[in-house]
Amino acid sequence: MTEAVPVAFIGLGVMGYPMAGHLQQAGHPTTVFNRTAEVAARWVAEHGGRSAATPRSAAEHAEVVMMCVGADDDVRAVVYGDEGVLTSMQPGSVLVDHTTASAELARELHTACAQRDIGFVDGPVSGGQAGADNGVLTVMCGGDPDAFAVAAPVIDAYSRACTLLGPAGSGQLTKMVNQICIAGLLQALSEGLEFGRRAGLDLDLVLETISQGAAGSWQMNNRGHTMVRDEFDFGFAVDWMRKDLGIVLREGERTGAPLAVTALADQWYRAVQERGGGRWDTSSLIALLRPPA
């Protein structure tokens, strides 16, 4: 059994809401903050724990503080300033950022925390809303081993894999690898399914067959059949993927990494947005290949 420690969770979106719930369910006394106070109140009514009016007050007595917000600027807004978490976190506590953000921000936060004798872990996640709901996320971590050793048993409440990949920023860089692989794979899956449709194949039967071989993947198993039925009103939104791919492409420009397919995928996702599909699942790339109705 993991020792219960007081924790704070900042950001109760589609991922953070269930993640914080798993913390409370696992026995960690959890204080939450959300910009929309009504969401925090609903979370408390559902899970117990308590809510706070500011990030500062949420983090005041926490040994581990988690964040899962939108982007770099959102993270800075809840970390710094008079009401930021760093103003109340105690020496020896640990800040964990589950936001998919830049590696540069992770290194910045590591430095700011170290100046206050606070540990820092960048821990972006993979597994989508279903993974958060079911507590089986994959968490990719960067940071110092001592900080990771404190955070990992707490993260265990909503993860099935939690790995330290290197110093601060390594988690975010690994999430970038993850998104590069997903974007290219989904385009290939889209093209394969549309090829099969035009060839007159039974696509459900095709998926059942090829998923057992070398072409099999999480995306094929979990998105293939819904792609066939043009169902996209769930899952990881195109808007979020474009935000992530923007981070990837900026990092690729900085390092000189070739990202030709990723750049194309970003353009295709922009086309989905222009069709009004910004909140569709990322598997909606296939919609671009279908002839107009």
Structure explained in plain terms:
- The protein is of the alpha/beta class and 293 residues long.
- It folds into 2 domains: 7-166, NAD(P)-binding Rossmann-like Domain (Rossmann fold, 3-Layer(aba) Sandwich); 173-289, Orthogonal Bundle (N-(1-d-carboxylethyl)-l-norvaline Dehydrogenase, domain 2).
- It has helices spanning 16-25, 37-47, 55-59, 72-79, 103-114, 128-134, 145-155, 170-198, 203-210, 218-228, 238-255, 260-274; strands at 7-10, 30-33, 50-51, 64-67, 94-97, 119-122, 125-126, 137-143, 159-164.
- Strands 1, 2, 3, 4, 5, 6, 7, 8 and 9 form a 9-stranded mixed beta sheet that branches.
- The longest helix has 29 residues, at 170-198.
CATH topology of the largest domain: Rossmann fold
What structural category characterises the helix and strand content? alpha/beta
Mean pLDDT: 97
Helicity level: 40-55%
CATH level-two architecture of the largest domain = 3-Layer(aba) Sandwich
Strand content of the residues, in percent? 5-15%
Order of helices and strands: EHEHEHEHEHEEHEHEHHHHH
List the helices and strands and how they pair.
Layout: E1 7-10, H1 16-25, E2 30-33, H2 37-47, E3 50-51, H3 55-59, E4 64-67, H4 72-79, E5 94-97, H5 103-114, E6 119-122, E7 125-126, H6 128-134, E8 137-143, H7 145-155, E9 159-164, H8 170-198, H9 203-210, H10 218-228, H11 238-255, H12 260-274
Parallel strand pairs: 1-2, 1-4, 2-3, 4-5, 5-6, 8-9
Antiparallel strand pairs: 6-8, 7-8
Helix pairs in contact: 8-10, 8-11, 8-12, 11-12
Q: Top keywords for this entry?
A:
293 residues; nine-stranded mixed sheet; alpha/beta; Rossmann fold; N-(1-d-carboxylethyl)-l-norvaline Dehydrogenase, domain 2; 9 strands
